[in-house]
Design brief:
single chain; mainly beta; Acetoacetate decarboxylase-like; 2 domains; globular; disordered N terminus; disordered C terminus
Amino acid sequence: MPASGPYESTTCSATWPASAALPGLTSPSEGEPVMKKLKRISLLLAIALATMASTPSRPAWRMKADYIEACSCHLFCPCYFNKHAEHPTCEFNMAVKVKEGYSGKTNLAGAKYWLTGDLGDEWGTAKKGKWVVVSFDPKTTKEQRDALAPMILKTYGLEWPELKVQEAPIEISNNGDIAEAKLGGGQMAHMKLKREPGIDGKGVVIRNVNYFGAQKNDGFWMYKSINHSADVMGHQFDYQDRNAFLISIDSSEGMAAPAAMSGASKKSK
């Protein structure tokens, strides 16, 4: 975001004696001709400026994270190709662990958070979700939470009329065929997912599809929910045999986001 810098503009003037030689230059009688040396310095300056222009600046923040995710739509969630969910609601759980990342000087590696909510029916047309609860694992530091909060909102790009934050322990496990995540020991939210084997038994993956505002992802690895439920902050739901997937994303500030899903801020559920 634009911010005022701590610098003030100042103007300096000085009179250089007409008879004085420019620092670092010599007259023709003293050695290298002045014009030849000026050309050499100009060339070096041009090379330096070109190098600076080609060196990308470090983004203000960057995050690579693993997601375990499930929603109330049937497999595969139509929200990734349409502006509406299968039903007027799209109730979701997302368990997230940051593999590596930073925001300023804050190291985000190892941080865990959980999103529970409902995209509602306007996420694709008005960029507005219905409600969301953000839960941070107790081991996630205050500095990490403060850094992650705007990053989460930036990644999804939705307005949330109801947004609540809490702390609760997060457990995540994955043995390949079964992935499981628990919030508050499973009392607040729970996902137990079974991998779709595919023809060769090695799993089904959908690639070249955007995940909200993340610049990159490794593909949607297809699962189905054995259990996908929540009872948190006054909201309850419970589903089985619905859409679920595992995905790893790479998201950062200052990098161009991919084209929005179906012309809107793409939704993940």
